[in-house]
């Protein structure tokens, strides 16, 4: 962590154009310190640790962190869409049979062939990291851990400091079935359905609201949005959607069968910031599931709180740690895949 903050200061001038420089680096010191304080204070409220640890690979693969970070940052520098892809990839892994890299497997009828995963990407980044790791520490680091670390590093790239800490020690699953993906929440679910989906994974209301903040970056296919804009050929705008913002969405998705994409955060689409929450309060949440957060009093209060960036980063960090623990395989369960797309042959 120290090294990453130092890197943030050293690289500050490169980031001035993106709204920060030295001021950003110092701001980050405050945020990260606050995050640690909040984490420590609330540690007792977190679920018991399922067998993961910080620096699990300290002895077995000491260069893990630097390899994952350097490969991820190089790829994100070339493709600003990757942080959103990798973050969603990690989420879709954890919500289906736990964080076991089952989403990465290339087998018949695999998770990645299921409807909700057709627009998921970032697999090639995990492959690139795994290739390097297999040269340095063969057979040691799980694909599930690589995915958790890469998601964190990709999102953290814009800050040049780690936005959250990742526990490691996960092992890889051997089963990947499209039919298991019905545990993923629907973008058309109401508040109760969304909360139930999170509770089914051991997550709570706070986690639902904090993790939905991931929609501060990335895109949605028009098909995820057009039911809020059209009924057949007729315009029919969801009353939970601001009408001016609905028109903006329609300019990218002009009919119920449009095939393009829209930004999930119509304001600062590439910045991992708390602007998402302000937009949800202003009826500018892009998905119906974003809008649903304002439909429950307790959730709406949290949405209001998380418009504060420091609170958002602290809450997001805590909830990512919890999500990263969902149904993990540890100890002698599962395996350490040699290739992330295939289970080991022996
Ligand atoms: C609360 C329930 C959630 C629902 C219903 C939901 C649904 C969706 C949908 C429908 C999309 C657009 C997919 C498409 O149309 O192609 C999307 C994108 C995305 N989701 Fe979620 N999501 C939820 C929670 C989360 C969580 C917990 C995370 C991560 C922690 C996350 C991260 C993302 C990201 C980063 C994108 C953009 C992906 C990209 O640009 O490639 N989502 N989500």
TrEMBL record:
It is found in: Secreted. Disulfide bonds join 61-137, 94-99, 143-340, 222-253. One of its GO terms (cellular component) is extracellular region. Keywords: Calcium, Disulfide bond, Glycoprotein, Heme, Hydrogen peroxide, Iron, Metal-binding, Oxidoreductase, Peroxidase, Pyrrolidone carboxylic acid, Secreted, Signal. The record marks 88 as: Transition state stabilizer. It comes from the Eukaryota. It is an enzyme of class 1 (oxidoreductase). Residues 51-344 form the Plant heme peroxidase family profile domain. SUPFAM superfamilies: Heme-dependent peroxidases (SSF48113). The keyword Mitochondrion does not apply. Substrate binds at residue 185. Ca(2+) 2 binds at residues 216, 265, 268, 273. Pfam families: peroxidase. Its cofactor is heme b; Ca(2+). Ca(2+) 1 binds at residues 93, 96, 98, 100, 102, 111. One of its GO terms (molecular function) is lactoperoxidase activity. Removal of H(2)O(2), oxidation of toxic reductants, biosynthesis and degradation of lignin, suberization, auxin catabolism, response to environmental stresses such as wounding, pathogen attack and oxidative stress. These functions might be dependent on each isozyme/isoform in each plant tissue. Belongs to the peroxidase family. Classical plant (class III) peroxidase subfamily. This is Peroxidase. It comes from Urochloa decumbens.
């Amino acid at each position: 962590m120290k090294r990453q903050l130092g890197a943030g200061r050293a690289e500050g001038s490169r980031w001035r154009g993106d709204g920060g420089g030295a001021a950003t680096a110092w701001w980050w010191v405050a945020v990260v310190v606050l995050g640690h304080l909040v984490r420590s204070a609330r540690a007792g409220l977190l679920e018991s640790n399922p067998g993961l640890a910080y620096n699990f690979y300290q002895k077995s693969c000491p260069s893990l962190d630097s390899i994952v970070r350097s490969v991820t940052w190089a790829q994100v520098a070339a493709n600003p869409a990757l942080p959103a892809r990798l973050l969603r990839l990690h989420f879709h892994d954890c919500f289906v049979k736990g964080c076991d890299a089952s989403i990465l497997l290339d087998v018949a009828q695999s998770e990645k062939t299921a409807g909700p995963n057709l627009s998921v990407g970032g697999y090639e980044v995990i492959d690139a990291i795994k290739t390097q790791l297999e040269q340095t520490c063969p057979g040691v680091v799980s694909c599930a851990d690589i995915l958790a670390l890469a998601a964190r590093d990709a999102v953290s790239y814009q800050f040049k400091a780690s936005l959250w800490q990742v526990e490691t020690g996960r092992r890889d699953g051997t089963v990947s079935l499209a039919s298991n993906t019905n545990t993923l929440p629907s973008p058309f679910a109401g508040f109760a359905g969304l909360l139930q989906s999170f509770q089914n994974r051991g997550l709570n209301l706070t986690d639902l609201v904090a993790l939905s903040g991931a929609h501060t970056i990335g895109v949605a296919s028009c098909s995820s949005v057009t039911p809020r804009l059209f009924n057949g050929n007729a315009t029919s705008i969801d009353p939970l959607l601001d009408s001016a913002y609905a028109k903006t969405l329609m300019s990218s998705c002009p009919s119920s069968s449009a095939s393009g994409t829209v930004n999930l955060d119509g304001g600062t689409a590439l910045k991992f910031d708390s602007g998402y929450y302000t937009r949800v309060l202003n009826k500018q949440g892009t998905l119906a599931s974003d809008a649903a957060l304002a439909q429950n009093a307790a959730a709406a209060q949290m949405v209001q709180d998380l418009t504060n960036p420091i609170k958002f980063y602290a809450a997001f960090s805590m909830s990512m740690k919890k999500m990263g623990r969902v149904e993990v395989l540890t100890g002698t369960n599962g395996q350490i895949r040699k290739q992330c797309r295939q289970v080991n042959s022996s």
